[in-house]
């Protein structure tokens, strides 16, 4: 009775530091700055929007969870992290239940202890840190929760139609959380073959018998899947999207590079599963040309050997083999078979192991013991205990050290930049974090280091222009920003961009919005408020509803004598900002009005009638 609570307590203690972390990485893009989610009016039009520009990610259930948080607690990072931690602990408990359900039919000795081992391995595996410590990792957490519930329902609900209803309902919720849920039907089949191996039948006959006996479940899953496909077609006009990493490669190169990419991705995940202690991080970049190099081919060969071993286990109808097959099935959506869109060209992500690690934990719990008759049982127990103890220690140490690195954008991207100083995405993200933290001296050092290496990439060039604008070097800042925008004149589909007619599928919208915000800041500093208003409007075209942009536009409306509209927009934007942002924006307004209303060489503004400078708001 005490084993599962002990595992949950240990996991909670190791992860409690996440409650002090803030919003990082894409949190702002995905939900913090999403005015629709924060408006309090939640309908299908809001929940069916793609979670990222230029994608077909339909994940309404997770968006609804954030909308519910906003309604209950406002924009509160601690509450959001508490939900993520609760989901991780729930998944640990569900792994324990699923392990017990599978181990008892296998007649494994000490099933309770083995189930506890599965829960411990899953709860403490360092690769789950990203999904738990990053609020946007909730997509993977929630999809895994509902898939675990479906797998458990298949084993505990007796009636065929009742079981079908429970599984189909969980399937629908999982599909509403993340696309990886499409793998639930084959996962159900694999686990059924573990519980009901039917060794007297050929494998295909065993599969057919399961499908015939559980026709209601097959029918229910098919109906839910068909509805999901129709919803995606209705929302996006497509079921999936992809971004080829082979642009610029010789004609026909994809024919051999793509299989190598898939095998290298598989090898990456296998390595992360076995030795995750030094390779964690938000970015795992790869170079396309390296896939066909000696190391790339060697990694692909290792993945092929692993697949051959799995094939042998399946041929032997081993229960552990079917569980390892579940690992492969859970990985299929992220093995770059359909290339994933990624600014940083990452070969994979730690959070994508949230589901596969369930079956790694189950596989280890179901391993026969003793492993061999050639070594004494005492030695095997001692060796296994030492290995498990070392793994727990290293995992706990890794989690303890890594949780604080997810505390803020500054800590996260400083860590990533230190690991990958030549990666453009890491450079840009770190510089953006330094600028937001007002650490301009450190940003200047990084910029000079990058400029010494050669011309800045347009992505980083926008960051440099924004930095120069903050430093007051307005002309040079504008030159850099205009030059970068020329590089972005054509989108990924070859269409010329029109800032007044923005495609919702344009994946570069966030960086373009940032560029026009910086241009607006430049025009504001020069006193050219009409141009500043025009540019902040373009920024809002690229990223509608961002409250910081709204507050900036409100000031430009005041400066152009549109006082009523400006005051209304300022009030609305302030209500959507986080508390720490409100202080910054309120002080910015005070400084702006003081500058605006004390310029004797300019026409008197309406907002300045009867103006008396108030004291600044203390931080």
TrEMBL record:
Keywords: Membrane, Repeat, TPR repeat, Transmembrane, Transmembrane helix
InterPro entries, per database record: O-mannosyl-transferase_TMTC, TPR-like_helical_dom_sf, TPR_rpt
TPR repeat feature ranges: 513-546
Transmembrane segments: 85-106, 112-129, 141-161, 215-235, 296-315, 321-340, 352-371, 383-406
Keyword flag Transmembrane: yes
UniProt keyword Transmembrane, yes or no: yes
Gene3D superfamilies xrefs: Tetratricopeptide repeat domain (1.25.40.10)
PANTHER family listed in its UniProt record: PROTEIN O-MANNOSYL-TRANSFERASE TMTC4, PTHR44227
Protein name: Uncharacterized protein
Provenance organism: Panacagrimonas perspica
